[in-house]
Amino acid sequence: MSKTIITVATTGAWPQKSQNPHIPMTPLEIAEDVYECYRAGAAIAHLHMRDDQGNGTMDAGKFEETVRLIRERCDILINCTTSGDLNATDETRQLHLKSIRPELASYDCGSMNWMHNSLFINHPRFLEELGLTMQEYGVKPEIEIFDAGMVYNSLYYLKKGILKAPLHYQFVLGAAGGTAATVENLVYLKGLIPEDSTWSALGIGKNHVPILLTAIAMGGHVRVGLEDNLYFGPGTLATNPQLVTRAAKLIEDSGNEIATPKDAREILSIGSGSDGLK
After folding, report:
1. What is the mean pLDDT of residues 222-228?
2. How far apart are the first and last CA of the chain?
3. What domains lie within the chain, and their CATH numbers?
């Protein structure tokens, strides 16, 4: 029986409570929501932080407080973003990795036009520095893929030693400026990665369920959460635990087993735990 990892992305950098009042914003709200998602079957929590005005921030202090609160409650794997604020410096995008030493962190493997209104810059110089920082502090890169060129970038950094095998990919489908959330695109992207890699997928918007189903059927892992989808279905606002519960049921209905945090560490070749904040 295969084991499928559920990642929950609770918050993101842009959705607001005016769009969905269930989006957690403060460290305490995020930690409590993550714990409920852990109880529903999530093995990994992908974390973004918000400032006091509700905007995305890379404030290391907020990451540290949130992670401490989560680790007081459960052993869910911590996956920190490195791209929660488009105006952050290369330094502030990495500070929290050094103090927290999360099990995983996002490694956005290329630059792109973002939401048709701004630039999401991941300079080659930054990607080399980030990869080496992750190696030094024992953080596994979750290689975020928004289009096929980013897969080829990852293969270059693997060859150069900036990334180390086995690689772990997160296919992000449906972001404006990136690859559309279609089954055909997911199949194509999965075919580009090394055979010894692990991978997960998410769909933004109305096609999130087809991507969820396809990832499970193809033997991958899945990500759900209000960062990616505010609605459970047409006209029905979602909560993070609801989205995790649905993913868990689909995994079980497919004949797979829901991966625990311990399972996820084994599947992703991650050590028994972080030696950062406890």
Report:
1. 98
2. 33
3. 3-267 (3.20.20.70)
